[in-house]
Amino acid sequence: MKQDQPATDCKLDQMSQDLLGKPIARSEGLAKVTGTAPYAAEYPVDNCLEGVLVTAPFARGTVTDIDTQACLAMDGVVAVVEDERMTARAAQGTAGEAPVQQPRTVCYWGQPIALVVAETFEQARDAAKHLVISFDADDLDDVAFDPNAVDPENKESTSQGDLTRAMNEASSNVDARLTTSGHASAAMEPHAAIAEWDGSKLTVYASLQMLNYNIAELADAVDLEEDDVRLISRYVGGGFGSKLGISEETVAAAIAAMQLERPVRVVMSRQQVFQCIMRRSETTQRLRLASGDDGALTGFGHYALVSNLPGEEFAEPVLQSSQFLYAGENRLLEMDVARVHRMTAGSVRAPGEAVGMPALEVAMDMLAEEAGVDPVELRLRNIPENHPVEGTPFSSHKLAECLKQGAEAFNWDSGKRKPRHTKDGEWWIGTGMASAARVHNVSEAKARVTLKADGTAMVETDMTDIGTGTYTILGQVAGEMLGLPRDKVLVELGDTQFPRGSGSGGSWGAASVGSAVFVACQALRKKLAERAGVSEDELSLKDGAISGGTSLVDLLDGKDLAEEGHYEPGDIDEDFVAAGFGAYFAQVRVNRFTGETRVERMTGAFGFGRVLNEKTARSQCIGGMTWSIGVALTEALHFDPVDGHLVNCDLAEYHVPVHRDVPDLDVIMVEERDPAASPIQAKGIGELGMCGGAAAIANAIYNACGARVMDFPMTPDRVLAAMPYD
Amino acid sequence: MMKLEFIVPITINNTAHPLPDDPRTSLLDFLRRDCGLTGTKKGCDHGQCGACTVIVNGQRINSCLSLAVMHDGDSVTTIEGLGTPDAPSPMQKAFLEHDGFQCGYCTPGQICSATAMLQEIANNMPSDASESLDGPIKPTPEEIRERMSGNLCRCGAYANIIAAISEVAEGDAA
Question: How many domains does chain A have?
Answer without folding.
Answer: 3
